[in-house]
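FIELD: query
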Amino acid sequence: MKFKHIIWDYDGTLFDSYPIMAQAFSDTLKEFGFSEPADKIMAYMRVSMSRAIRHFTEKYKLGDDFLNCFEGLNKIAQAENVTPFDGAVGLCHDIVKSGGKNYLFTHRGESAIYFLEKYNLASSFTELITSKQNFPRKPSPDAILYLIDKYNIARDEAVMIGDRELDILSGKNAGIHTCYFTNGGEPLDTADFNINHFAELYERY
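FIELD: result
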């Protein structure tokens, strides 16, 4: 199957941001007198950021002061340290050169656009869907259905790529193909296919 329309998740898929976010969360907890290892926090974040925040704020009875502090530390940490996964930039450029189209579907806000521009990726994307558009969160297919309708996308030519089951379910609920990015972890049976490195996608577009 050759895909012409590639819909990307951001955190944990295009950008290696989870370790940085988890460490910032752990550091913020320490400032409030609590200790949690970053890898444990990251496990919750990989389900969803809201899941991680809800779990630890309820566990330690934390409020807006904690969330505001985390937001500040996380913003600084990401600005200094977040980078695209190896091969992501070149792949997105090559997809466009070969006549394909890239789209972004993320729950993240405008910071996603900032980092795409920083690493010369934004120009390789036909449309960037962030939290600003206020689509229902994954696994809702609404944002993908919007792209299908707007760009007259044939479902058998489209694929949703993500690192979480929510991403995969969102693609399946929209009736398109799904690709799970394992990043060295366990494959996901519900995805149509799994990849560990973006070089594996070259044969599919």
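FIELD: remark
The mean pLDDT is 95.
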